[in-house]
Amino acid sequence: MAKSKPKNWIVGRWLIESMEQWDRNFIDEEVRGYFEFDAKDSGDFQFGYAQGQIDYRLGERDGKPAVEFTWDGHDEMDPAQGRGWMVLDGDELSGRLFVHFGDDSGIVLKREPEKKPRKRK
Do the beta carbons of residue 35 and residue 50 sit within 8 Å? Predict the structure, then answer.
């Protein structure tokens, strides 16, 4: 019997590794593209000129841990909304991001490495 993931498996910052529709330069235009999930089923993201708040729910897709979300924010200073889903496979989240009445793109995320504390002299 497979172990289920604890509820907080998603919590933390995930860096955008790739997107079908946009290249690395665009993804990281203003900041390193990311999604961040908190323990209260919400979070935020930013890539290119798009940024927003997310409302997520955990579940499964094809027997793998998954997250589905809606988002509300801005794209190039214009109001924008959308939805998306991602599946955890190993150390990656992969799925699809949708902009309401706009683009959609495949997306791959990797958890941001934890920063090691600095040693004091």
Answer: no
**55 within 8 A of 68, measured Cβ to Cβ:** no
| Backbone dihedral region for residue 91 (phi beyond 0: left; psi -120 to 50: alpha; all else: beta) | alpha
Kindly state the DSSP code that residue 9 receives in the 8-state scheme: G
Distance separating alpha carbons of residues 35 and 109, to the nearest angstrom: 8
pTM of the model: 0.86
Between CA 112 and CA 64 the distance in angstroms is 21
Q: How many residues does the chain have?
A: 121
CB 110 within 8 A of CB 35: no
Q: Express each pLDDT in 20-72 by its tens digit.
A: 999 999 999 999 999 999 999 999 999 999 999 999 999 999 999 999 999 99
| Ranges assigned E (strand) in the chain | 12-19, 34-37, 42-47, 50-61, 64-75, 78-89, 92-99, 104-111
Q: Which domains does the chain possess?
A: 10-111 (2.40.128)
